[in-house]
Amino acid sequence: MSAPDEIRAVEIEAPEVAAARAKVRRRRSIALAIALALFAITFYTLTIVKMGPALFDRAM
């Protein structure tokens, strides 16, 4: 019971290719973080707007 040749063959990529993939991965991670932050800020803002100005007039 051995693995097929396609699974056994592991190619070691060149350092340039690995660096390029890491750069692309980092950019994608930053883009996702920015999108998530904007999403959270949008929900926070919409929640405050939906509550209306009476939110700030209440007694503490």
UniProtKB/TrEMBL annotation:
It comes from Devosia litorisediminis. It comes from the Bacteria. Keywords: Membrane, Transmembrane, Transmembrane helix. This is CoxF protein. The chain crosses the membrane at residues 30-49.
